[in-house]
TrEMBL record:
It holds the Pfam family SCP2. Signal peptide: none annotated. This is SCP2 sterol-binding domain-containing protein. It comes from the Bacteria. Residues 19-93 form the SCP2 domain. InterPro entries: SCP2_sterol-bd_dom, SCP2_sterol-bd_dom_sf.
Length: 94
């Protein structure tokens, strides 16, 4: 599954929901997904919060197969920027 496919799935999942702030999933060489203003795009830009993780772990996270807090503690996800935005994401996908 490409990051564009994942972004399309996120866009579908965000329909009818609100997400304040901006957040970037940074999957290294695989690319990025940016959540901002109710949309998900693969165009890179500055965001309030960045989550660095593998594309595989991103898929697991969004499918509910990877607990965000456990993943951070195990080093599978590295968070930089506004932690409050990351917490909002956890509630949105949780």
């Amino acid at each position: 599954m490409t990051l564009e496919d994942i972004a399309a799935g996120i866009r579908t999942g965000l329909a009818g929901k609100t997400f304040d702030g901006s957040l970037k999933f940074d999957c290294g060489d695989d690319g990025v997904i940016v959540l901002s203003q109710g949309d998900a795009t693969t165009l890179d830009r500055d965001t309030d919060c960045t989550l660095r993780l593998s594309a595989d772990n991103l898929q697991k996270l969004l499918a509910g197969k990877l607990n965000p807090m456990t993943a951070v503690m195990m080093g599978k996800i590295k968070v930089s920027g506004d932690m409050g935005v990351a917490m909002k994401l956890a509630k949105l996908i949780g």
